[in-house]
Amino acid sequence: MTNGFDIRIIGGGLAGSEAAWQLAEAGLRVRLSEMRGGGDTTPAHETDRLAEMVCSNSFRSDDAEHNAVGLLHQEMRALGSLVMRCADKHRVPAGSALAVDREAFAGEVTRAVQTHPNVTIVRERVDHLPDHPTIVATGPLTGSKLAEAIAAETGEGALAFFDAIAPIVYRDSIDMSVAWMAARWDRGSSERGGKDYINCPMNRDQYQAFVQTLVDSEKMPFHDWEKNTPYFEGCMPIEVMAERGPETLRHGPMKPVGLDDPRTGRWPYAVVQLRQDNALGTLWNMVGFQTKLKHGEQVRIFRTIPGLANAEFARLGGIHRNSFINSPRLLDRELRLKSKPNIRFAGQITGCEGYVESAAIGLIAARLAAAELRGERLAPPPPETAVGALLGHITGGADAEIFQPMNVNFGLMPPVEGRWKKADRKRAYTDRARASLADWLERERIAELA
């Protein structure tokens, strides 16, 4: 024990909060260092709450039968995840996806961690790597001095990419005589009778004019240190997609497939979708519309979208630089820094991408650390599971020479044997994963009893 705690966590995002909870539940005393609320902030956060969601309010698909991230949700619930418990409690309608009221969700996580008797939250900035057991979960917005300390220890320059934030619109400013409620292929949640998204239709002329306006728009300039930083493909700014070709958006976030306009009975040429962002239903997120447009340009251009002519924005889009380490080169199989094994890394700084993936790595980092502090060894979850596949990818499965942020997907798992139809193959992956996780949990339970 060091100064009244057994282990330190740096960073109070989703990964750090999940790690703190898991360690505290294991009976270990945790010091959670979070710089927000202590006089420091980041370019993207707006509050000092733990687990603040800054980019989107969606944990993506909750389908545990046919989707890898839905399977990861299920596995985390089985592992006692605080993040998933709070997400389930504060979910909002989003079709087959799990989306949350982001303020209520962050408040719930904050209260749970803050009131746990084994956790002490300290509002402080950490500029160096400690010498005692520590999990670094500072996310993609790691402070510059700590990033320099990591680079000095590893001899590696931190990789970086851009992550962009989508605008949020007030629901009562959307013209529902133009827009309509629906989910793609009517596969929505029961809460809204299958009608989870607000859909703003465009005809061919409107779409082509919109794309050209995006291409010609005024963007925020890059700082010198940002100019050579690549975008992460999963969070590409809308104007960058528009520059890739006139049809790119129609086959991306503006695809009309499966959305029948009730006024015509047909699919529009293109569609802008908005997803509920809070439990009250007063705020709606423009799906896939992350952007680096100047704020004035955003208001001007997005109000040309049918149904948004009088849109009022609760938040405009933005963009920030994300950093991550070359985990396959720098970390061992238990997420420990090879050159300084008292330090573990968790969350997006490891190169996993996505809210739920970050929390999952925080959960596993905490369980591995707890076992080590008890003088035990926890076998990593099997690679056939979603959490095991993600862990294996960032700790050696990926090619260190071309390592980039990655969401969980079936391609990270060992192939299933035999020939399968597409839908059946996905079910084969998830069935195998559930059996593998159950077996792993039973073996760990027996070992713990022994």
Number of strands: 17
State which percent range the strand residues make up: 15-25%
Helix content: 25-40%
Class of secondary structure makeup: alpha+beta
CATH architecture of the largest domain: 3-Layer(bba) Sandwich
Write down the CATH class of the largest domain. Alpha Beta
Pattern of helices and strands: EHEEHHEEHEEHEEEEHHEEHEEHEEHHH
Low-confidence stretches: none
CATH topology of the largest domain: FAD/NAD(P)-binding domain
Radius of gyration: 22 Å
Compute the average pLDDT.
90
CATH homologous superfamily grouping of the largest domain: FAD/NAD(P)-binding domain
Shape: globular
Number of domains: 2
Strands of the biggest beta sheet: in what spatial order? 6-2-1-7-17-16
The rounded distance between the terminal residues' Cα atoms is 25 Å
Number of helices: 12
Largest sheet report: 6 strands, mixed
Supply the key terms.
alpha+beta, FAD/NAD(P)-binding domain, six-stranded mixed sheet, 12 helices, 450 residues
